[in-house]
Automatic annotation (TrEMBL):
Membrane spanning residue stretches: 36-57, 64-83, 103-135, 185-206, 218-238, 275-292
UniProt-listed SUPFAM superfamilies: Multidrug resistance efflux transporter EmrE (SSF103481)
Keywords: Membrane, Transmembrane, Transmembrane helix
Gene Ontology CC annotations of this record: membrane
Protein name (database record): EamA domain-containing protein
Pfam families xref list: EamA (PF00892)
Keyword presence, Repeat: no
Record bears the keyword Transmembrane helix: yes
Domain EamA: residue ranges: 6-136, 159-289
Length: 293
């Protein structure tokens, strides 16, 4: 469980996730979310197919199949809830709820995989969650407590809180799947499940959209799929080396990277105001690093 192995992988997860989210932001402005999700997951699976000749299939453990069914189903259902959450409420009120996933992991990880971080690690996780929250909601026109208040009056934030919890379960199931196979076998199996599930869900629940609508965006969707695959591969390799809460907490530093990319590339405002959140996240990152040193 050496820091030198898992930490660069977890940081790569955060970077790839931030880049994917940057492209997602542009895609959903021009296409409906169902099309973006369906095409992105299909592209992510296809991008992984060239790895097949290089995969040595290990002995599949007894817990592989229930972990695949559980994690795959959770991820598909989370997509359905995610679309509904964005439909019912503002993005600025819903997405901050996802930063609570590492906190939920402090409950689900000991139960599912028997992992509990040290006190220093727990403090680091809390700092990263708090910092991510500050990055997303410390804005003059929204207010720090707005997402909490929205829990009582809006459906979207409540759905996002449910998603944050179920993703804390699926992250642990991912580790179970890896322990009963290998990171690459689990990655391909899970992505095949999710690609099929999201395609069926988009076909059944999503609006009809012709190929003429999304074909001009094909290159961007392929890049998003590639980044999604790269992030997942690095995440699963990191999960093999350290505790689930640490990997997911460092993954949440993607919010910090997204702020930098947004201010730099999209010329978004509020960079100075978000420095407090960045500083708190960095402090949490250092605490987790010290906990694993």
């Amino acid at each position: 469980m050496e820091m030198i192995g898992w930490l660069p992988l977890a940081l790569a997860v955060a970077l790839f996730t931030a880049l994917k989210d940057l492209l997602n932001k542009r895609s959903v402005a021009q296409l409906n979310p169902w099309t973006v999700a369906r095409m992105q997951h299909l592209a992510a699976f296809v991008v992984l197919l060239p790895l097949l000749p290089f995969i040595s299939v290990p002995e599949i453990g007894p817990n592989f199949w229930w972990a695949l069914l559980g994690s795959g189903t959770i991820n598909v259902v989370a997509l359905l809830l995610y679309v509904q959450a964005l439909h019912h409420s503002d993005l600025s009120l819903t997405t901050p709820m996802l930063t609570t996933t590492p906190v939920f992991l402090l409950i689900t990880s000991p139960i599912i995989v028997g992992e509990f971080p040290s006190l220093t690690g727990v403090m680091g996780i809390v700092f990263i969650v708090l910092g991510a929250w500050l990055l997303n909601v410390q804005q003059r026109h929204i207010g720090f407590w707005a997402p909490f208040k929205a829990l009582y009056r809006e459906r979207g934030p409540r759905l996002m809180l449910i998603i944050a919890f179920v993703w804390s379960v699926s992250s642990n199931l991912d580790k179970v799947g890896i322990q009963n196979s290998s990171p690459l076998v689990w990655l391909l199996s899970l992505f095949a499940f999710i690609a099929l599930g999201t395609t069926l869900a988009a076909h059944h629940f999503g609006p009809r959209e012709s190929g003429a609508d999304w074909r001009p965006h094909t290159a961007t969707l392929w890049i998003q799929g590639g980044l999604f695959s790269a992030a997942a591969l690095c995440q699963f390799l990191a999960l093999e080396l350290t505790m689930v809460p640490y990997v997911i907490a460092v993954k949440r530093t993607s919010a910090l990277m997204a702020v930098v990319l947004g201010v730099w590339l999209l010329k978004e405002q509020g960079g100075r105001e978000r420095m407090l959140g960045a500083a708190v996240m960095f402090a949490g990152f250092l605490l987790i690093t010290l906990a694993q040193a």
